[in-house]
Structure formats: structure tokens, C-alpha cells
Design brief:
Elements (H helix, E strand, L loop, with lengths): L1 E6 L5 E6 L5 H7 L19 E4 L12 H7 L9 E3 L13 E3 L6
Parallel strand pairs: 1-5
Antiparallel strand pairs: 1-2, 3-4, 3-5
Length: about 110
């Protein structure tokens, strides 16, 4: 289990207990976090689950795969810490990770 802090674009914060093995996207959907649309249901084909990962956590994540890199080129306001939340699998090591949700997905 890990606690993930989701921060909506409007500043509203949600601390969510997430079971290891769950994606950041699925946990957001299960907890009604606004701003993560997830049109493709987590198959890494739409980029509507784009998030910003707090920079201090980036080194603890798996590397982006080729498809994620391509999709992140198409998101609204990409940043160096942009990731697709469907590609971030929660582990106990991510306890306390901060995720910021962009103003819009497309």
C-alpha cells in the first residue's frame, strides 16, 4: 500500500491509499479524482491520463516506453515531468508520491 497525493488543477488535494500493483490512473478513477479522463481504459493509446509527477519521484519510476513517449508529444502543455498515469504502477516505494493533474487533457 502507498499513499498517493493527487492535486487537481484547481489546487484541491486528495490523499489516496493505493494497493501495490494498481496504476496511478486506475486509483484516480476508483476514487473519482477529476481531470484524469482515461478514455482508453489504461491501454496507453490516448494520453487522456496525462499527469505531472513531482520531480523528486521521477527517478523511482520505470522508464517510459516508446508508445508513452510518442503520446506525450501530443498532450496539452507537456513538461519534463509529464507521464501517462496508466503507465505508473504503484509500489510501496512510491508512498507519498505527488501527482499533479493538468488543466486539460487535450
Amino acid at each position: 500500500m502507498a499513499t498517493i497525493k493527487y492535486i487537481e488543477h484547481n489546487g484541491e488535494e486528495h490523499d489516496v491509499e493505493v494497493a501495490s500493483g494498481t496504476t496511478v490512473m486506475q486509483a484516480a478513477m476508483d476514487n473519482n479524482i477529476r481531470g484524469i479522463v482515461a478514455d482508453c481504459g489504461g491501454s496507453c493509446s490516448c494520453a487522456t491520463c496525462h499527469v505531472y509527477v513531482d520531480e523528486s519521484w521521477l527517478g523511482k519510476l520505470e522508464e517510459q516506453n516508446d508508445m508513452e513517449e510518442v503520446l506525450l508529444e501530443e498532450v496539452f502543455d507537456p513538461q519534463d515531468n509529464s507521464r501517462l498515469s496508466c503507465q505508473i504502477i504503484v509500489t510501496d516505494d512510491l508512498d507519498g508520491m505527488v501527482i499533479r493533474i493538468p488543466e486539460r487533457q487535450f
